[in-house]
Design goal:
Blueprint (H helix, E strand, L loop, with lengths): L1 H8 L2 E3 L10 H10 L15 H8 L5 H11 L6 H17 L2 E8 L2 H4 L5 H19 L2 E9 L4 H13 L8 E7 L11 H9 L5 E4 L5 H9 L5 E4 L7 H10 L2 E4 L1 H6 L11 H7 L3 E3 L4 H4 L3 H12 L3 H13 L5 H7 L1
Parallel strand pairs: 1-2, 2-3, 3-4, 5-6, 6-7, 7-8
Bound molecules: adenine and zinc ion.
Length: about 325
Amino acid sequence: TTFHSFLRALPKCEHHIHLEGSLEPELLFELAAKNNIVLPVSEDPAFESVNSLKSRYEQFKNLDDFLGYYYIGMSALVDLSDFESLAFTYFSKAASQGVRHAEVFFDPQAHTSRGIELATLVQGFKRAQARAEAELGITTELIMCLLRHLPVPEAIETLKQATDAGYFADSTLVGMGLDSSELPFPPPIWTDLYAEAKKAGIRRTIHAGEEGPAEYMTQALDILDAQRIDHGLRIFEDDALVSRIAKSKTLLTMCPLSNVRLRCIDSIKDFPLRKLLDAGIRFSINSDDPAYFGGYILENYCALQEVFNLSVAEWGGIAKGAVMGSWCADQRKFELL
Ligand code: ADE
Ligand code: ZN
């Protein structure tokens, strides 16, 4: 349709994509074979083939059900070249869909806990970033996410490791986030981690209001001083929070296809797109874990357009908000606008 080509051509920024969540089943099996990683096929027949795994991905019950597959899948990543391939494959796909700037998450603890050095993944990603800029003409930034299902001291230690390596000082990393299982691990648990990050001048985002209530978003702002919120789907449970986030122009990085696949909403019709626009909230549309949720950024934009039929001007406003909410230099924002 005409809107498909319009939305592809629209210069887009992506702010909520987990690189490990862009690991397509084909590459997962290829890397597992190369690295002699045995997938738990005897415990779960979904790991028998690419096709059985893809069918299973269409039936996630909730966030934790997905996360089980996500952490097993990424265990196929071992070498620096695996991380480079993963990231460059995503950057290529994103560029082909009209992404001009991407700020991507990765989960260092999911790899260091398997004995892989932080520097291995970071150097692999950096090679992919340099190639993406040179060969694809897109800019990319890395955001390190800590895992909320692991103990707080381990997150603090990982932050320290990245800081000591100079990754924030030299802008290898542009910020810190927090992801994984949400409901049992509310924001107040992470007070010390976020205080450390703030003290060190590190930008802070957090997954909140995905499965958890709006209260977790308020806590993220009040207690953690988060500067961006990933998802924030449940914001409309709290009118005061809506006004506050609109006023502060805090970016919400929304992921509609993810929300449907993880059953946070029944269908795209229930995604609060109209309410976000009406409330004047700054938000971006993102893919989250595209290899698992049936679409990259363009499929997310198109799924919304099919249901909500936005105008060209409305899409222009969304794209502009995404640029303004980016964590890149002002100079780059001017180029993107
Ligand atoms: N890790 C990867 N994707 C995630 C999501 N949607 N929510 C929480 N943690 C995640
Ligand atoms: Zn996410």
